[in-house]
Structure formats: structure tokens, C-alpha cells
Amino acid sequence: MSLIDHIIRPDIRALAPYHVQDAAGFLKLDAMENPYQLSPELRAELGRRLAEVALNRYPVPTYAGLKARLREKMGVPDGFDVVLGNGSDELIAMVSVACAKPGAKVLAPVPGFVMYALSAQFAGLEFIGVPLRADLTLDLPAMLAAIAQQRPAIIYLAYPNNPTGTLFDAADIVAILQAVGDSGVVIVDEAYQPFAQATFMPRLAEFDNLLVMRTVSKLGLAGIRLGYMSASAALLAEFEKVRPPYNINVLTEAAAAFVLDHADILEQQAAALRAERLDLSAALARLPGVEVFPSAANFLLIRVRANGKTANAVFAELLARKVLIKNVGKMHVLLEDCLRVTVSTPEENAAFLSALTAVLSS
Ligand SMILES: *Cc1c(COP(=O)(O)O)cnc(C)c1O
């Protein structure tokens, strides 16, 4: 037996590495990044702030200043704290680890965010996926039946969902919170909140089992890796115990604090992207053979069944034209022939549309 066979878990050995496509030289519309930057003046000021940061010191692990800004600017209700993560990916990992009792289960609608299942597997939890309906809306009866049968410790509901863009009904989420009761935590993942303008954050006090998770990634700060979550003090205190004490580095802390002091700029950018989503969606719907799903996020899911051209072929021909979107067709049967594209600036959206139009008519 080799060293690797001795020490590495068989389920990890069987995994393919998480693949991220090299995007150099591409029109990059695959990862829901905000295309807008800060003004040159603000970037220069940010540079001065970052130059003052003491790189030789560990962060102060209470992160009091950053947390206070997040609570104030992001609508965290009075009396509720936040736990910080190196992206929500790390928050998901922390919750998984803290809840990984033998036999514990994680449940989420599928297709959904891949990290829910992956993080469950890493922590040794069983993942149960409950299929959405064919129109990609939540199948509430199926969710409630699975919850009653499986008694999951963690339920994820991305609000809105990735990769579908669907905003589940708030009433369905409330029904799930009530059905789960004190047998599990319901994580409402609001990564796309700035584009959905819908949130469970103000409702934290109503549900002891509700956890609201957010990130600054889709808002325009994907590079700094910062996520936050709020829930009852009792729940947060347990999750805080598994947080690596210095998980937010001093540069991220300083950059986030600076940008949050100018949060109105990010809000204006999000508003522009919401308007662009409407225009891009209408333009895509006019293309023959293209179906556009309703989206409350900064991306659109489309199904391409054009004259003899498969979605796979469309994706490959876009790649050849240096346009990178996401081919999600193999993720789940419900996503057959589906592609996902980030909503970007008017110029980039127009470039994407003209490339897609050319591919579909060639
Ligand atoms: C992008 C995304 C995240 C990831 O957030 P990071 O903070 O960048 O790790 C979390 N949840 C959903 C549903 C997402 O689509």
C-alpha cells in the first residue's frame, strides 16, 4: 500500500479537484463578479489605508470595528451579532464541522450551490438533495416530506438559488423553518441579496433555528474573501468556537471597513446591475431557441435548444470567441441544455449578446 492509500480517505481520493477555468483574455461572465470598480480617487485612498496596516501583527480576533460596520450597513437587527468567515465557503465549512455528529445529515434543494454537498462530505455528513420542480421552483411538499423522514441537522436554502436564480417563496421558507423546529438549523444563504432585495435578516428574532448567511463577494469584493452570518446568540457562540481565530486577514479587514464606509457606491452598482438584468433577460428571450428563467440574482440561467445546435456546442463556440460563461448542463438532469451567464456592464452584455447571436445563427 502506498503512502497516499494509507493516509488519504477513499472518498477524497475519488474526488476530482475543484476546477476553475483560466479566464485570461476572455470576456469573463462565469463567476457572478461585479464588473464595476471603485473610482480612481477611492482606490488611491484605499491604497493609503492599506499601506498603514501593520502586516507584522496578527489580526485582533474580535474584529470589532468591521463587525460593527457590517451590523450597521447590512441591516443586522439590534441585539444580533455576526460571525465572520473567509468567504461564505468558510462559514459553510464551520457550520458543517460543528454539526458533524455521527449520522447527522444535510439537506438542500438541487440543483443548488455545490459547496453545500462538498462541505458536508468533507465533514463526514450525509448530503440529501431534494429536486426542484421542472420549472426550477421549490417543491415544498417534497422538502417537508424529506425533512420529516431524514431529520437533517442543516438545511440550506439559497435565497435566491444558484445556479437557477430562483427566489423561493418566503412563505415556503417559513413553512420549512416551522417544520424543522429545534431539530435543525435552516441556513438562508443570501449571497445575492443586493440583487434580490429580499431578505430574512430582519426576521431573525422570529425563529431560533434561522441562520442568515451573506457574503460581500457578489457585491463587488469577491477578491477579499469575506462572509458573515447571523443567528441567535446561542447558535453563533457554538459556531464561533470552530472559527480559526485569525481567519480574516488584516488587509481584508481594512479593505472591507473602507469600502463599507462607502456602501452607497456598491448599492448604486447593484442597482445598475438589476436594471441590466432586465435588459439582458429581454434581449435573450428574443433569440430563437433560447429560454430565459426568471432570476433575482446577478446572473441568468438560459436553456438553449436552437436549430440543431446543442448547449454544449454553443458553450464551446462562445469559448472559441473568447467569451467565458458557465456550462451547467451536466450538474443536474433539471439543467439539461442550460447555461449560466453573469449580468455585467451594458458593453459586456452587448458583446455577449452579439457573440451568442452569431453562434446561434452560424
Ligand atoms: C457565490 C456563492 C457563495 C460563495 O460565497 P463566497 O463568500 O465567495 O465564498 C455562497 N453561496 C452561494 C449561493 C453562492 O452562489
List keywords for this structure.
362 residues, Aspartate Aminotransferase, domain 1, Aspartate Aminotransferase, domain 2, 4-stranded antiparallel beta sheet, 15 helices, alpha/beta, binds pyridoxal-5'-phosphate, 2 domains
Assembly type? single chain
Major sheet characteristics: 7 strands, mixed
Can you count the beta strands?
13
Q: Could you estimate the helical fraction of the residues in percent? A: 40-55%
Structural class by sheet pairing and helices: alpha/beta
The distinct ligands, each listed once, are: pyridoxal-5'-phosphate
Total helical elements: 15
Structural notes for this entry:
The chain has 362 residues and is α/β, with parallel strands linked by helices. It folds into two domains: 3-39 and 264-361, Aspartate Aminotransferase, domain 1 (Alpha-Beta Complex), CATH 3.90.1150; 59-262, Type I PLP-dependent aspartate aminotransferase-like (Major domain) (Aspartate Aminotransferase, domain 2), CATH 3.40.640.10. It contains 15 helices and 13 strands. The strands form three sheets. It has a seven-stranded mixed sheet, sandwiched between helices. It has a four-stranded antiparallel sheet with strand order 9-10-13-12, covered by helices on one side. The chain is globular and about 60 Å long. It starts with a helix and ends with a helix. The relative contact order is 0.15. The model has no long low-confidence stretch (mean pLDDT 96). Bound molecules: pyridoxal-5'-phosphate. The site of pyridoxal-5'-phosphate has 12 residues, from helix 5. The site of pyridoxal-5'-phosphate (PLP) has 12 residues, from helix 5.
